[in-house]
Fold these 3 entries.
Entry 1:
Amino acid sequence: MSVLTRDEAQTRAQIIDVERYTIALDLTTGEETFDSRAAIRFTAHAAGDTFVEIKPATLRSISLDGQPLDPALLDGNRYPLTGLTPGPHELHVDAAMSYSRTGEGMHRFTDPADGETYLYTQLFLEDVQRVFAAFDQPDLKSVFAIDVTAPAGWTVLGNGVAERTGDGRWTIAPTPLISTYLVAVAAGPWHSVTTEHAGLPFGLHCRRSLAPYLDADADEILGITRACFDRYHEKFDEPYPFDSYDQAFVPEFNAGAMENPGLVTFRDEYVFRSAVTDTERQSRAVTIAHEMAHMWFGDLVTLSWWDDIWLNESFAEYMGYQTLTEATLPQAPNSVRAGETLFPDTWVDFGVARKGWGYDADQRPSTHPVAPDPEAVPDTASALLNFDGISYAKGASALRQLVAWLGEKDFLAGINTHFARHKFANATLADFIDNLASATDRDVHAWAEQWLRTTGVDTLTADVHEPIAPTEAGQSWALAVDRAGSRPHRITVATFDHALNTQAGPGHLAPRDRFALDIPGDGAPLVRPGHRPALVVLNDGDLTYAKIRLDAASWDTALGHLSAIPDALTRAVIWNAARDMVRDGELDPTRYLTAARTHLPYESDLALVQGVLSFAGGQIAARYATPEARPAALATLTSLCRDLIRRTEDGSHPGLRLTAVRHFIDAATQPDTLQSWLTEGTVHGGPELDPELRWRILTRLAALGATDEAAIAAELAADPSATGREGAARCRAALPTPEAKAAAWHAMFGDDTLSNYLFTATAQGFWQPGQDELLAAYVDRFYPDATALAARRGPAIAEAAGRHAFPAYAIDPESLATGTRALKDPALTPALHRKLVDQLDDLRRALTVRTTEH
């Protein structure tokens, strides 16, 4: 299949405009294909040739202006339209299209819990061609009018209000001008919760087997939706531009969510079937706010080409976190409330859960500017590679720094100018910057060049010392900041002194003052009155994007008193600095574990506990610790989690207790406690084991060789849901036997019937730390098998293979050499090649951490 190049898109946009698509989809024709008929009205500006895209199972007929064309002329996914004359034209295409099991195009899912079938579209970035014929590029916006024929008893959802017009027949209201990748249809026996807000219909939808769980959370989800909707209308001059707002939680979704106008689709893990923490509820709320921001930035105003994807994602990422904080009412320090759920400060969660994603991506060989040059995104295949921590987390961090520098009033004024000038149209980075510049006297163009057109992470290092000459006012101290990098930064510096109160944990620190600092400044150290503080923290409030290094005395204070720092966001900055230092080989991983063991028992912010435990377990114990050191690292983690479980026996911190139980399970090296919990159906003192905890325990027991196929089959019989099937696949792949590994490998690479979720679950179970000898033979096999799989099954499975099936725990020079050689294979697809580059860089870093002496 041919990918679309930027040059081809620009040429086609000069030749034609598209006015309207009239689409008819028949979803009653079988389990493998559906019927798709498209009538496309477009205008040619001049005589010339172009093409339309479609990926059919069978192209039955095609005609232009009533004249039949030869279906055999279809070349891959392109049908040539030659000899166009200036003026209006109408193209008709009739085809049978294949259902997808990989979350691309029209995905088909049959729920094992009740046998019901559900369909939904995911057309980003170029998968509209899997559903109907289209001129598939973002700057050829059009009106879309869609009719759907579905089985009796089904409900059809779309970008606009859908009305039943007959037995199984549905008409979706025509859209305003939108891009092809934003068209959405979902069909099935949905369970729906509907309401109205601001004169518009709002709806929540999920498969029927999840109905009780959606009903339990519907008030919270709708409350967040309404609050964010109202807050966006306070921030933006342009009103919500579509006729309804539906949110569908769909099965086997590849992303977190997709911003289809009027019909946002979410992965249905957001309908919580098992117990979750408030931080996880907050993540769902942030996703709701993120996707709603796209209704303006992405849907109302759309990028012209994919080099500007950051305009969509960075903006929505920033707005999601910021608007959720603004849209819900403060009830306690660093907390906001939506409905009856208490959320921690969203920016703490961003700092520990998202920002590291950006820092990691920005230090790999595959790094790219937030806003790459157009020449760096020559086609749609290369565009797909930029959906990473840079386009999301780094871009959002850059926007947060821009707001700190520009001021929110001017920032929003520029945004509203952007919407007014480009609504229902397309815009570029240059348009965006020009519109921001119109609202301020600051040099936004220079800022954009420094922040958006460059790569890498700046490092800010504090130098705290006594002034050479004392001041007339008496005692003083001086701060200089060394910047490794080129970007300007506006930061806040916080200082702390030792205090006598020890109730907050090991030692206590009292805030002294906070002050703003521009970097670079005039080059002279900043002299402050008073004695030298015990702790000086750069980037307090986490308003810029940079690695932070404390001076030596402050670092010693931080490691000894981290839990005694009053503000969670300050603690997040320091934990991130520690994480960076471990990854850079500057901090012994055991010191990180010691700090976690010392301070997490006193930590009050759940996002920090989850973030630190995830890095300690998922990276330090699993990858950075040598095989000889790994048992001690796991022992530290189990001891820490046991302390947290004891701390929460009174039931006052259920989220913290759940987090500790999860990480205790993951770190366990002996099966006895886990077997006891599983047999009794509860953790001693609670919680009772829900499906998520039962499968988590069974997966760990499988990896330890302490369970068998019979136990897995029994658990699946008790939980025959979709997540149960995934849990069973994960457990079976984790079993430390040659037979289990061979069967899992064949399922992933020898049999193309696994759905995207079952493939991922199998891959997650397959590679286990501590099973090195059993898995050694598969390291070399991975590269040719994954290369062939990616070519057969496409980008979604290629990404899953590169992310989850990669031999991440084979950390040795031979594995690195094998992977490095494999990168030279010309058969690698772009999606798989990018994932391997990133994985091998992480492998190289893990080797360096293991061999660095401290």
Entry 2:
Amino acid sequence: MRQVTPLADGWILRHPDGTGDALPASVPGCVHTDLLAAGLIPDPFLGRNEAEVAWVGRRDWTYERDLTAASTAHEQTDLVFDGLDTVAEILLDGRSLGRVRNMHRSYRFDVTGLSGRLTVRFASAYAEAEAVRGTLGERPGAYAEPYQYLRKMACSFGWDWGPTLVTAGIWRPVRLEHWSTARIARVRPLVTVEDGVGRVELAVDVERSRVEAPLAVEAAVGGVRSRAQIDGTHGTVRLEVPDVALWWPRGYGGQPLYDVELTLLHGGDPLDAWRRRIGFRTLELDTSADAHGTGFTLVVNGERLFARGVNWIPDDVFPSRITRERYRRRLEQAAGAGVDLVRVWGGGIYESEDFYDACDELGLLVWQDFPFACAAYPEEQPLRGEVEAEARENVVRLMPHPSLALWNGNNENLWGFRDWDWEQGLAGDSWGEGYYLGVLPRVVAESDPTRPYTAGSPWSGSWQHHPNDPAHGTHHSWEVWNRTDYADYRLSVPRFVAEFGWQAPPAYATLRRALPGEELAPDSPGMLHHQKADDGNGKLRRGLARRFTLPEGDFDRWHYLTQVNQARAVAAGIEHWRSHWPVCAGTVVWQLNDCWPVTSWAAIDGDGREKPLYHELRRLYADRLLTVRAHGDGLLLAAVNQAAGEWHGTLRLRRMSVEGTVIAEASPALAAGGRTVAGIPVPGELVPAGPGEFLVADAWESPRPGGAGGGEGLRALHFPVPDREIPYPRPEFDVALAPGGITVTARTLVRDLLLQADRLDPGAVADRGLVTLLPGEEVTIGVRGWKTPDPESARSALYCVEPTR
């Protein structure tokens, strides 16, 4: 059998440019993490240290270790790198084994019988990118850094939420593989299901050391076995598994996974094995035309979905630091927020198997971008060959995962060509269209015909429509954040909203750790350094001013209100668009996570703390949602039911004053079929008549036999004017300790109450976010990690909307 020897230990790093003292090196790892471990650079995530380590990306670096590749038990030995970042030459005792220039690929070198000093000599990514730019000419991009000129994680060059930390290193595992006669070079699994029968077709490529040896493959899955001969270097084995259990996205069914094992045989002797987990499901993308334009609806096992999505960026600017446990934790947070689709954004990477394994198990559909984002990409060599090679490798690598739902050609490049003044400046130069409309769809069609491909996001489906036309295909909604009020989300109904979002700072404890010793203010030096968006603070300020009186000189109020505004903005969009299902078939919030501590659009900050937006997503992405929207001259209550069963219950509509008086009320019936939206007109006498009034809509399940209630109800609130125009009473409430947390009892209207648990202790976590209480109502907030509970400390960490001063 093939034997594997990991090469994780014994590495050193030459610092810098191959000179100076050798440092211990971690593999997998990168230059920055090794320098950090050696105490030679400050933590770039703290303060303004990012600028202090900019020199690292401009240097060449060398990794070394001793290597003995001899094996008396095997005919061939290969040196295998799963990931090299990015431009490097590999040498053994001074003899060049090869040169590489792509972070997104693996590499294999024949080192049979060799031994000596193994050297991986990395060139500066800047030097390589600038050399390619000098050869192929300038191409426009959203940022000044040259990320489009080499196949490296684009956001390592900085983004509007990320630091510029251009690193190098052996970022994925490296090993020796010893083998004889033949090895499995590639397995391409096509998994389909029809009439309850699961079909698995395994197309196998082998590499031989003995051309004449007769070979066979044997495969097993779900108790079924099958065998096929290898003809030359290729063979295909097929299996049919009766009565398979279907894999579903979370919320629609279970996630049964089947182990597939394939063995390469020479006679009766096993030579190599390939093992994966698969799931049986059908998946389509419905882009048919209708009365509203061109749809974009995912269909799994015949069930049409409203996708409840989030955008995913690399969870660390140094991806080698992301462990299997960290992937699992972050994706469990996504699932806990009601998410059923995660879009792996195109400025990052093809993630590790750990990411997709977790998505398989949690029922999270994966929309996978190819790594192209926000720039014109040259299509000439040396990039063109690299693009096709990386695409072929990663499409096949990720095929076994049932969570993988969609391949997407790029992020915003088709839109950029049309709207960002690229076309005239390019003057006919290549810019990536040949990748998105040629190379990539061909690779997907040839390698993975079981999954849909779309050329970009946003993309209307063809050049007959504007690339970001909301009526056709996918849409990115950024005008609202950049220029207007979040109420403007309600002005249109896109077919699928693949990006939209609103900024807020990270949790208070995250800021305190990242900016040690700084007196925090929105425009303090560290806060500005950890705000990467163009005029980000200006947009935060203008967005806040449309809703609230600005809390000048009060950082704590500013921090709270900007987080409230983020949650409210995202809610405005999702509530509106979900209420228009099936015309709108999905929302993908920008963004789930951060790669460092920063003011950004994320729901989970760079230290892993959940912002109020995260908890709001739990409400917005629940199977059942109530929302109030304008309807003609009045209001409509939309009951969104994404569950399979019908929703029958009792409604209570109340028109109230902010002082707590019920002015009018009604109890209409609630009935919404499974996977539908029911609209209930609000009677005219219940529509708020001025800024001092609001509408409360509560819904409960129908009473159970014997009079028992049907569980916790749902609530929707409608305030007709922005908060700065509402004559709120001064909020009054009582705070008491409760088992595992606190109980807050309101004596007045208390709007958007928030316990910032990390102010009690950096390790403390609350189990809920914003909650509005009517007079006399109470809420219990669970708190974990609070070492010395007391009600007065809790009160100091509680925030809510206050009257205009």
Entry 3:
Amino acid sequence: MTEQTSSTETPRRIVVAGGGPAAHRFADAMHARGLDGWHVTVLTEEAHLPYDRVALSKALTEKDVDLTLGTASMWDHPSLELKTGERVVKINAEAKTVETAAGNVVEYDELVVATGSNAARLPIPGAEHTHVYRTLEDVWAINEAITGLRQKLGRKVNAVTIGGGLLGLESAAGTEQLGANPIVIDGSQWLMATQLDEGAGQAMGRLIKGKGFEVHGGVFPSEVLSDDDGQVTGVLMADGRVIDADIVIVAIGVRPRDELFRAAEGEEQVFSLGQRGGVVINDYCATEVDGIWAIGEVANYGGMCLGLVAPANTMAEIVADRLHGGDATFPGFDTATKLKLSGVDVASFGDAFAKTEHALEIVYADPARGVYQKIVTTDDAKTLLGGIFVGDASPYMSLRPLLGRELPAEPGAFLSAAGGGEAPETELPDDATLCSCNNVTAGTIRDAINGCGACEGNAPVQELGELKGCTRAGTQCGSCVPMLKKLLETELTKSGVEVSKALCEHIELSRQELFDAIRVLELTSFEEIMAKYGTGAGCDICKPTIANILASQNSAYVLDAGRGTLQDTNDRALANMQKDGTYSVVPRIAGGEITPKKLGVIAAVAEKYNLYTKITGGQRIDMFGARLEQLPEIWKELVDAGFESGQAYGKSLRTVKSCVGSTWCRFGVQDSVAMAIQLELRYRGLRSPHKLKMGVSGCARECAEARGKDVGVIATADGWNLYVGGNGGATPAHAQLLAKDLDDETLIKYIDRYFMYYIRTADRLQRTARWQEELDGGIKHVEDVVVKDTLGIAADLEAAMAKHVDTYIDEWADTLKDPERLRRFRSFVNAPDQKDDSITFVPDERGQMRPATPEEKGKVLIGASIPVRPGSPEPIRNEA
């Protein structure tokens, strides 16, 4: 065992060869345990920060998706160094150095090898014309190839994937999302033969074929055919058939990158290697050479190398623990697998093939539906040994943590497809692993919920997002999140914390329940709603929420009929209050398009009222520094010039950002500006649980950053791709693909449904990204409701949106028509003509004004007889 260092010694040097997920997890584990006395150098041949290979399929269809693991700021630690573009090519164990391809020599005290694996290649003619599916560069090349071929050939591309395992099916599903014809060739008799038995494999094949995949099983390819230019034309099979192909992807497995452990010719072999590759490690991940460790896919334990994230993470944690003086050991490989692609649910775990002596197999199979469920137990039908689920994998989450334990009910009760309903309630023991990716037990989750000391102030964790951040559970593949949420709610209930969905202390209904009640009963006032569903006079939670719901359902003026007193400060003023008590004015500039004449109007208004101007990130112009009583004057000039409220103050649509599109840009394939304007004018004024932003890009170069918006639209040669659930803010999220190659009419129809479904079902102040995350089924559920109309509410959602569009009225234009409404815009109620002289400005260094600081304000006396100290900025009064 390596002795732990102390901070008084010279830092011990750890070198990590490799920069994949295992290397990242090791660096993160060292960082979490403390780097006092250590210096960690990670050498990676790739140009990227370590990224999530589990989510590689996202990069196949979304080239700019960010798969970076953890936070980039971790690498700012002075004892943690990441060197990209540095491939380790040689280990000199005696000198304790490694050499990189660039010729650099790096010394170490401890060496952790995490070089991972390479994609296996086909030893057949024409293999040089194929693609593999392993790195970001690999999937980007596939994306470019399919996109280019589609434009060149003018038809759908035939994309052949050789390999019917996890990686192969993931690859094929990605090509299908790119608009290609997905074709799978697999030498086995059924798909996913490593994880599924024959019954499950046959069910899987039926489901995949039903989704439009072409599957050729039981025959191996013998040659990849191509023309004189090297363009692939087909795949010659061993039985003589030729399968048409335009691109071929090989995904037949991986091979450990163990070349660092192989002796050069004439040298003695020091390291033991497995029969099928990989360096042999002991139960604490050490090789035979002192000070050299191996983790991840390059490590051979018990005769196996496995390309799964859970064991790699476990190995990384073990080495970090050992280096800090611990005694952790590797428990063996967790081979549990869960896959969801193209709407097909698949899961396999434990002794799925019932190899244990006297094991029982409890099976339900429905070939017609493509459903197969199997539970493997000991011969007394009590202890769970494993299982396989295809078509309906809902029992997996309940059963997976119980592996090796006694089942709480008869095995058949867990076969949901057989009509047994939901799986029985399960009380997980503390030592049961809930998150296998990060090896987090139910006990660790309970400790965090009840206050474990790991979080600031030993505070109990009562929010799902906070629980994930604190424990890491659910942060990798995400399949355990439903169980995590269930455990959180159970523990809170046990500890006396009521798991309530009540809007606030005055209203017991959730926002969704209240929204539906108001809609069905057609309630129109706060008083009606409180009389039926509330108590008391309301609060700063229920008042603006009810105002928001009423505005969402009725496009009436938001400050009429007593609703003005319900609104937040910004909504009451129809403007954003700033730090000094002034307001900003943001006219709508739909799609970012504006004429020179209208630009001149904004310039004239800003000069007249001495307003600070700033172009916003949403392609509008923001004018700051207006006093409350000035707002009507400013807006009258803007409305007369044809402007309307940009609603920068409301929980509503803010902007639809667009690139210049096909009208001007030589790369544009659709008119993104016209579409952005159409969308902004359609959804303007739409009140929602939180602010909404949209983006429209005219090509795949994505200049409008549409995937960072609540709704993003990206042009394709065949129409529009629709992305939903993107957010910026403190916890940014990329939007997810909902539908592709849509015509204008279908695109707008789907957006109508999406926005209305979100408005009706989201929680108070919940962004679209968080809303989608918490929906049971996530983006698949959204697809079912919005695209497939599985709930049968599409027509109702569309009608609700049509009502909004038909009844929209600009709030500021409406305000200016009514003297009573204008009475709201006074700084002093009892002195309507008096201005607020406490508001002062000073010139900034860039030629505009800014709010005066408290010190600068102190220099401005009521009587102007005392001059400001020489050299200080001269205050400017906003005397429009």
